[in-house]
Amino acid sequence: MKRNSRLSLALHTLGHMAGDPDRMRTSADIAEHAGTNPVVVRRVLGRLRKAGLLDAEKGHSGGWRLARPPQDITLADVYLALDESLIATMAEEDAPNCSVEHALHRKVSSVMEDIERSLIERLAATTIAEVK
Amino acid sequence: MKRNSRLSLALHTLGHMAGDPDRMRTSADIAEHAGTNPVVVRRVLGRLRKAGLLDAEKGHSGGWRLARPPQDITLADVYLALDESLIATMAEEDAPNCSVEHALHRKVSSVMEDIERSLIERLAATTIAEVK
DNA sequence: CGTCAAGTAACAATTCCGGTTGCGAATATC
DNA sequence: GATATTCGCAACCGGAATTGTTACTTGACG
């Protein structure tokens, strides 16, 4: 798998879960379908669990399941749960003693923050139940 | 220097050039001011040269200079010249034989493209002459 | 008690990026 | 014309980040 695959893996999995919310899935099942490793799956889905989007149960007949109805989970929820920005932030300068550098950083950072807000707004408009 | 520093370096340098457009600067000068290496500077500024934003001259009294008045160079020009997206693209799946995967990819990609357009629009509203 | 599955730590493999060196080409100065 | 200076470029190194993998622990169910 390539880079930046965490969001892809998370959305892909939740998309399938939305289609059959009651089914319990193990990380091995999910990993096989997604073409990756069970540990990787647990790493990614663990974030979603901590964010309250998924429930996980151990032992026999254990696995993963949606913690909320799929209509109540938006793409923004998943994006924010992963805490992994798709919007690059400006490289912070250690010693911003240059006024030009400082002004540029402020300007571009301001734009990027607006863009990030806009992205979240767009993602919040779609739930995982709508993606099939 | 950290990641995503190419745009920072480019904008920083052009910002200074905008304040004194006639001065010729060598990559060694620029590198020292930016705290990096002359070769790195040439790598980054070389892209801007190919995009028509900068002129470079070899030999004695050679160096770098703006190719256009600073009022005619926007942040978007620099961003596009570097051909380095600040917006992450979705990991392309090799075999998109999964309909959920496919639908998700289309949905998210569509949003990301809108966001990228929006970013460029925002960057195009500011010229390097305005950042001081 | 044994099995199954998540949770987690540790390590290897890969990729990406800036930094560095070296050399060639072009141009100004002597 | 010789020399010095500067960009252009290719090759390689090293660090950082990410994914893949192994191994072990914890907890739940039959």
Structure, explained:
2 copies of one chain form a homodimer. Chain A is mainly alpha-helical and 132 residues long. Chain A has a single domain, classed as Arc Repressor Mutant, subunit A (Orthogonal Bundle), CATH 1.10.10.10. Helices cover 52% and strands 6% of the residues of chain A. The first copy, chain A, has 5 helices and 2 strands, in the order αααββαα. Chain A has helices spanning 6-19, 27-34, 38-50, 75-82, 99-124; strands at residues 54-57, 63-66. A two-stranded antiparallel ribbon of chain A has the order 1-2. In chain A, a hairpin with a 5-residue loop joins strand 1 and strand 2. In chain A, helix 1 runs antiparallel to helix 4, helix 2 (27-34) crosses helix 3 and helix 4 (75-82) crosses helix 5. Chain A is elongated, with a radius of gyration of 18 Å. The mean pLDDT of chain A is 92. Chain A binds chain B through residues 1-5, 7-8, 11-12, 15-16, 19, 33, 75, 86-93, 98-101, 103-105, 107-108, 111-112, 114-115, 118-119, 122-123, 126, 131-132, and chain B through 1-5, 7-8, 11-12, 15-16, 19, 33, 75, 86-93, 98-101, 103-105, 107-108, 111-112, 114-115, 118-119, 122-123, 126, 131-132. Chain A binds a DNA duplex (30 and 30 nucleotides) through helix 3.
Features:
homodimer; 132 residues; mainly alpha; Arc Repressor Mutant, subunit A; two-stranded antiparallel ribbon; DNA-binding
Brief description of this entry?
Two copies of one chain form a homodimer. The first copy, chain A, is mostly helical and 132 residues long.
Please outline the helices and strands.
2 copies of one chain form a homodimer.
Chain A: H1 6-19, H2 27-34, H3 38-50, E1 54-57, E2 63-66, H4 75-82, H5 99-124
Antiparallel strand pairs in A: 1-2
Helix pairs in contact in A: 1-3, 1-4, 2-3, 4-5
The first copy, chain A, binds a DNA duplex (30 and 30 nucleotides) through residues 1-6, 26-28, 36-40, 42-43, 46, 56-64.
